[in-house]
Design a protein that fits this description.
The mean pLDDT is 86. The protein is flat and about 50 Å long. With 105 residues, it is mostly helical. The two termini are 37 Å apart. It has helices at 7-31, 38-62, 65-81, 84-100.
Length: 105
């Protein structure tokens, strides 16, 4: 049997999926009881950026020079254009081009 199709692996996937769905649905349900004040709105508006930072920070700490240059490009685009999707795409493009050109890291 394939390593991927082992029963313990499939059970782990099912449990992780159930926890993820429950967390998301629970968040939507709980937000129904939150009074969205200007302060709460500012916090919710800041979440996408903080999630990207939380995902990128471990990569930046353990990455090489290519990662640092790609993150600098992404941050620059994010500050100038205020578009998180464009910033992530730019960072990925810079890293891909640098690796394709044989840059170390």
């Amino acid at each position: 049997m394939s390593e991927f199709l082992r029963s313990d692996v499939m059970i782990a996937f099912a449990v992780m999926t159930a926890v993820t769905v429950a967390s998301r649905l629970g968040g939507f349900w709980l937000m129904g009881y939150v009074n969205v004040t200007p302060r709460v709105r500012r916090m919710l508006d800041a979440l996408p950026g903080s999630i990207i930072v939380a995902a990128a920070l471990p990569v930046a700490v353990n990455g090489g020079p290519i990662v640092m240059v790609a993150l600098a490009a992404a941050i620059t685009v994010s500050v100038i254009r205020r578009n998180d999707f464009l910033a992530v795409a730019t960072g990925m493009l810079v890293a891909a081009v640098a690796r394709a050109l044989g840059a170390g890291g």
